[in-house]
Amino acid sequence: MGSEEVKVIGSCVSPFAARTMIAFNIKCIEYELIEENILNKSDLLLKSNPIYKKIPVLIHGQRPICESLVILQYIDEVWASGPPILPSDPYDRAIARFWAAYIDDKFFAVQVAILKAGGEEGQKAAAVEKATQVLVVLEDAFTKCSKGRKFFGGDRIGYLDIALGSFLLWVRVIHKMCGVSLIYECKTPKLFQWAQHFSADAAVQDVLPETDKLLEFAQVFVAKLRKPSG
Amino acid sequence: MAEELKLFRTWSSRYSLRVVNALKIKGLEYETILEDLQNKSASLLEYNPTHKKVPVLVHNGKPICESLLILEYIDETWKQHPLLPQDPYLKAMARFWAKFGDDKVLPSIWSVFISQGQEQEEAIALAAGNLKFLEELLKGKKFFGGETIGYLDLAFGWMANLISILEEIVDLKLVDRKIFPLLSEWMNSFSDDPVIKECWPPRNKMVEKFKAMREPYLKELHETEVMQFSLSS
Q1: What pTM value is reported for the model?
Q2: In chain A, what residues touch B91 (CB-CB under 8 Å)?
Q3: Ranges for the GST N-terminal domain (chain A) (predicted)?
Q4: What is the dihedral of CA B90, B163, B74, B182, to 10 degrees?
């Protein structure tokens, strides 16, 4: 099963797509990246993910799998002989899944809120405060999960590192566009260090593009966000 | 060491019911701690400080939160009567559809329940669209899990109980047998299963509870109508 054709409909601007690409790097699996323009969705994407119409979509031997966290677990299970992504202990797996779901539920939304706020200082401050609260919670989760080691997953990056680390790209964009540092040393020292280790990891290096490359897209994306609807 | 299992839940929580059913299917003994969500216990807040919600399963002192994650934990810890498929693709599909159920199906059904008039018409169309996906999933199968109840059946299980209650209160048919024959049949098969049957919360209490939950939305609509009437006259 592991030898069938592997394609990823994704984009270097998407943290969710980055998760899939990092996972394949960890497993040393070759895949074809079908670059998607999320501002002008392709027929292939709409056909492969009719429910959510979003990236990433993993197409493995003609079968599409959607939702980045579902995809991560699928990759881990299909290419089980490669380095593991999820922990082996059921309790540790439950904890990793819990925090990954928390990150998707809370962290993504506040990042969007910060970008959307733009010059509205009150709104921006409120969103930044929320983001900080989330990160303080995650700092504590990191202490418990890492048990003194470099990553949430221990000595190597794992599921939860990928779930949070994929957002580092947008953390940097927010820093450049909004002048806000979300992960900083005095507030969340462990996450600050973790972020540096994560970004330097071989599986991550060529997946997260340079911040400047993302800025052009980010500006268009943010303009759309701030446009009043209707 | 003897296994110690505790489940923090409420009498009616559809998320808690998933775990109750899973533990029953696996034949596991556990202690129930019934929570009053208006007055949460110190233990619940200690075991689930992040969300402060039920259900929480505590296994030998270690808490696991979020019902679908609890199902996976139970399945990975106790191997008898597997809930999730072995095949990674089928497992991925089960996880995907379970999330779809919580993210899309449930909110769309809830919208039908709390809305009226034109808004309700639109909500019905959206809910029906979502339910069509589930109808498709059941093609050639008795349960979402195949021949026996599995993870996805437990994830959707709230429908087999709650939909008829909501239908009764709003006097509307959401899952029409003519339009959703497979889903209707599934709801019966699931409800009739001896494991599931004995765990249902009392129906009359549920009707009472959900009628009360609907009240504020009816009141809001009535006030809007009164205002519109007085503006136009």
Answers
A1: 0.94
A2: 73-74, 77
A3: 4-83
A4: -30
